[in-house]
Design brief:
six-stranded antiparallel β-sheet, 6 strands, alpha+beta, globular, Alpha-Beta Plaits
């Protein structure tokens, strides 16, 4: 089921009754404030990438694959028993924003409110989802090969 949590009318109704399921795999996307390409600057992107990979953030959940694009972030997450998806996304956004704002205060607000998630169905392949996710820089013309783009990772690599 796709849901979007955003500051639009009716978005609260979409979240009502939504439960996070331990062991479930989610594709998650969230965008920068006003889709500003903050992460086109390698120093800003590196700051955020260090936070994304910080194991303290992923105590119970597992980050299986991720990519930081100039104006958004995609992740493939296996949710743990002690986390709910919205709390995990909120922590990730807050920690990356704190790092970016401390190092680059002129940026201002880093992330837009809300996020999009898609719970993978059992018939959907994790590897296919991860491949799709990490190929974003190639499709966007930011790199010729995924290995040429510095701001991504996957547990299978």
């Amino acid at each position: 089921m796709d849901t979007t949590t955003s500051p639009t009318p009716g978005s609260a109704a979409l979240r009502r009754g939504r439960t996070s399921i331990a062991g479930q795999h989610y594709l998650v996307t969230f965008t920068t404030a006003r889709r500003t390409p903050h992460f086109a600057d390698a120093d800003v992107a590196m700051c955020a990438a260090r936070v994304v990979e910080d194991t303290r953030l992923w105590v119970d959940a597992r980050l299986l694959a991720w990519v930081l694009m100039p104006d958004h972030w995609h992740g493939l997450i296996e949710l743990g028993a002690r986390d709910d998806l919205s709390g995990l996304v909120q922590r990730l956004k807050a920690n990356t924003a704190r790092c970016v704002s401390a190092a680059h205060p002129a940026i201002g607000r880093v992330w837009e409110k809300g996020y999009h998630d898609h719970a993978l169905r059992t018939e959907e392949s994790l590897a296919d989802a991860a491949r799709y996710l990490v190929m974003n820089p190639v499709r966007a013309g930011l790199a010729g090969h995924v290995g040429d783009y510095p701001f991504w990772d996957a547990v299978w690599v």
